[in-house]
Write a structure and sequence with these properties.
The chain is an alpha+beta fold and 100 residues long. It folds into two domains: 37 residues, no CATH class; 57 residues, no CATH class. The protein is 32% helix and 18% strand. It has two helices and five strands, in the order βββββαα. A three-stranded antiparallel beta sheet has the order 3-4-5, with no helix packed on it. Strands 1-2 form a two-stranded antiparallel sheet. Strand 3 and strand 4 form a beta hairpin. The radius of gyration is 16 Å and the shape is globular.
């Protein structure tokens, strides 16, 4: 599932791309809009999503971050992206205003 983005020069960029890495003959580097993604980047995103889920679905009434952790655990266990319906992910994301 690769998204497409137009850059400032009018060219088309893929949201996700892979390039050859240097650590091993089969090493790959994941790029997000042509920027390499590190383990630390993934950790920052996980922390953000957990904190945000707790805000909009606060425990103990709702699962909050636990639902996100269940989703990620399924990805880690199966190495597949879970069905959108199972985690109710088929929502349109809308930016209301930029965060500071």
């Amino acid at each position: 599932m690769l998204g497409i983005w137009c850059n400032r020069r009018g060219g088309v960029m893929k949201k996700w791309n892979k390039v050859k890495g240097r650590k091993h003959s089969e090493d790959e580097i994941l790029l997000y809009y042509d920027n390499p993604v590190s383990f630390e980047d993934v950790a920052v995103m996980c922390k953000f999503f957990m904190m945000n889920e707790d805000k909009i679905y606060p425990p103990p009434r709702f699962k909050g971050a636990e639902m996100f952790k269940e989703y990620i655990k399924e990805v880690l266990d199966t190495r597949k992206i879970p069905n959108k319906n199972k985690f109710k992910l088929d929502k349109n994301l809308t930016i209301l205003k930029e965060c500071k």
